[in-house]
Sequence to fold (394 residues):
Amino acid sequence: MPILDDITVLSLEQAVAAPFATRQLADLGARVIKVERPGPGDFARGYDETVRGESSFFVWLNRSKESVALDLKTDLGREAVLALASRADVFVQNLAPGAAERLGLGAEALRAVNPRLIHVSISGYGTGGPYTQKKAYDLLVQCEAGLVSITGTPDQPSKVGISVADIAAGMYAYSGVLTALIQRGRTGEGATLEVSMLEALGEWMGFPLNYAVHGGTPPPRSGASHASIAPYGPFRCGDGNQVFLGIQNEREWTIFCDRVLGAPSLATDPRFDRNSLRVTNTKDLTAEIEASFSSSTAEEAADLLEAAGIANALLRNMHSFADHPQLAARARWAEHDSPVGPLRALIPPATLEGNTPVMGPVPTLGQHTEAVLAELGLSTDHRTSTGSVQEEAP
Fold:
């Protein structure tokens, strides 16, 4: 039996953060009813067309959900959402700041009619303060949280290559819902949660924040290397490819010099005989290591490192990751349906033994509208418009 099979989630969601949170709940068996705008729907549907015409973002974030197309500025839209919220266990929204309250869907209003409801709001910067109304896209929050300032090379700052601020907020919303469900099981009362992208990503910035505030300077941008550990990062091999390695302590450093580099005296070289000196003299250190690796391919160097017990990795692209032997050996891939046929996706990483994730179909826009309205005793035939479409997410 799916773990959350008795939980219904109503979500007014767009883009990444909220859909990522609710997809985790759907994978655990919750019924997730996704409300989308008629016409374009969730604007992540239009981000690209790379998955046989479907958006790579949308198929990633929206399997196992029911799509209901409703205009929240119509009588029917408002009536349907309020009826669904009165029956739901969880309500999630990442509309523009204040939009849920203007639509009568704020926490106070919904929990007044459904005291057991867990009401979750995801925003860029949270309610209150000068940034409340500020638009918040992932790159911009990465900038505001200081992440871009420590990411990249010494010459060029860079954003992280995935939507890390959205994902952080989505994961805290997901874990917050699970926490609130446990609390409700004890007290019978629902909860109000607010998760901001800035604060979620800020939690992940603990190391550089402490390093800078207490050390006086932020960790320098170091590309794929480490700002405070050496050797740690990429090293060029004889075939022009890179092998990545990490040394964590002096015992490993001694083994590395002896068994990998074949130069045991390097371990006590005054330039390198402790980590702080290796960091200071990283240019010389890299030259020594790459000279040793110049007669090996990256795969040969990785094999040598593995035999010596030194942590290592090869630089994989997305195609080689999709064919990763470890994921294949552990049977971590499964198929789910979609409007363009079966798609392969990774099984959720936290899977309880004996429990199979749902991993249901990706819905077409409005696929479940009529069925859900019928459950409520409503019909699109009685739609009466009083305004424009629902307000966008941040």
